[in-house]
Amino acid sequence: KQEVTQIPAALSVPEGENLVLNCSFTDSAIYNLQWFRQDPGKGLTSLLLIQSSQREQTSGRLNASLDKSSGRSTLYIAASQPGDSATYLCAVGFGNEKLTFGTGTRLTIIP
Amino acid sequence: GAGVSQSPRYKVAKRGQDVALRCDPISGHVSLFWYQQALGQGPEFLTYFQNEAQLDKSGLPSDRFFAERPEGSVSTLKIQRTQQEDSAVYLCASSFTDYGYTFGSGTRLTVV
Question: Of A37, A43, B81, B88, which one has the fewest beta carbons inside 10 Å?
Fold first, then answer.
């Protein structure tokens, strides 16, 4: 059974700092990996999708990397802003469309 | 509509009561998914439809859980004889292409 782990569970950083969120998974035979953002009481918003053949994806201040062989992904957020405060979830997919999620990292940006 | 709509947003049920949760996906989205998210946890897969066909229901925790999508659009997740452990947020997502997910805001179910 695929296990997805996210470390740390919670993180607080001052505004303007760069930060890295980590995700690890046990089965490297993934189809792709996604990073989502979840605001309190809201659904999930897809941030970045990395196919298994790719090493990284970028969108604005966000950069996600994927190392399938080691079962790891990182989400890098540059120049953090208070509006980045949310829970960040990574999820892996195996080609049957369903996703296996990690437990998330709760990020707080301190103004 | 512009997004995935779920109703009700909040539901309080007495233990033993039956509940029905509705998901209205984005028009034209073929795939529809239900996930269950317990407090402080990531979402866990429940079931998946492609049009009206339920292709995977391996995540449904017991035979008290039942989902349907009879016309390939709106879906209903039904929970019979609710238990306290059913308390969670139930998320619906739809997609048109592989993994282009759009999630709804969820239904928060509290069983008392």
Answer: B81
- CB contacts of A36 in chain B (<8 Å) are 103
User: Cβ contacts (< 8 Å) between A93 and chain B: which residues?
Assistant: 99
Per-residue pLDDT tens digits for A55-101: 999 999 999 999 999 999 999 999 999 999 999 999 998 876 789 99
Tokens of B90: 């139930």
Bridging pattern class, strands A72-77 and B44-50: unpaired
CA dist., res. B58 & res. B52, Å (int): 17
CB atoms within 10 A of CB B62: 11
SS3 B108: strand
Q: Token digits for A85? A: 């405060």
Does B56 contact A4 at a Cβ distance shorter than 8 Å?
no
Which chain B residues are closer than 8 Å to A98 by Cβ?
33, 45, 48, 56, 59
CB spacing of B42 vs A91 below 8 angstroms: yes
Could you tell me if B46 and B60 are in contact, meaning their C-beta atoms sit under 8 angstroms apart? Answer: yes
Residue A44 contacts residue B103 (beta carbons within 8 Å): yes
